[in-house]
Amino acid sequence: TPSPPPCTVPPIPAPPIPVPPIPMLLPAPPMVKACPPPAPATPEIVPAPARAVAPMPAPAPDISPPPDIALPPDIAPLACPVLTTR
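User: That's the sequence. What structure does it adopt?
Assistant: C-alpha cells below.
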C-alpha cells in the first residue's frame, strides 16, 4: 500500500514545465519592432506623387475665368432695360 502514494507525487512536478513557454512569447514582440526600419523607404515614394500634384493646380485657374465672364454679360443686359424703362 505504501508504494501507490509515491506514484502520485511525480505527476505534480510536471505542471511547472508549461511555465517556460510563456517567456518565449515576450521575446517575439521585439522582433515586430524590427519591421519599422523599412518605413524609411516610403519617403522615396512620396516625392514622386508630389510632382503629380503640381500639375493639378493649373486646371484650377481655367475654372475661375468662366464665372467672371458670365457676370459681366448679366450686368450689361440688366442696365440696358433699366435705361429704356425710364
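The chain is about 65% helix and 0% strand.
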